[in-house]
Amino acid sequence: xxxxxxxxxxxxxxxxxxLRKIVRTLAEEPDQxxxxxxxxxDDRWYERxxxxxxxxxxxxxxxxxxSTGFHDHGGSRGAFTVALGELEELSLPSxxxxxxxxxxxxxxxxxxxxxxVHDVRNTTSGPAVTLHAYSPPxxxxxxxxxxxxGLVRTSVEGPEQW
Length: 162
Ligand SMILES: [Fe+2]
Prior knowledge:
CDO_1; RmlC_Cupin_sf; 2 helices; binds fe (ii) ion; dioxygenase; Jelly Rolls
C-alpha cells in the first residue's frame, strides 16, 4: 500500500518568514506593481496581484486617515511591507500589556502567525503603498472593537466583500 502525501503537502501554509520574503522581493521590483496603484478617498484601495493555491498577494494604498480597524486574518499567516510612505500598526501583545504602537516607515515589514490581530493606519499627511501576502489565501476576516476589557469581535467578512 502506498500513501500519496502530495495533497497534504500542497495545503501546508507558507511560514510568516516566507511570506515576508515574498513581499520584500516584490517591493524591490516596483515595475511589477507601481503602474497599478490607485488612490481612493472613500476607503483604502486594493488589488490582488497574485493568487495561487497556497498564498495570495495584495497591493493596497492608504490616504491620510485611512485605517483597517482591528482585524484578524481568518487563520491565515501574513506579512506586509511598506513600499512607499509610512504607516502605524497597533496591536495588543497580551491581555496584561498595553497597546503597542509601531511606526512603519518605508522599507519596514511585519510578519505574523494565524492568530494575529492588528489595526493598521496612515497617520501621516501623505499617501502610503503596501504589499501583503497571506497563506493560505484569505478566507474570512473578523473585525474587533477595542474596549476597556480588550478586543471584542464585532463582524466577520468573507471574500465576497473584497
Ligand atoms: Fe491585517
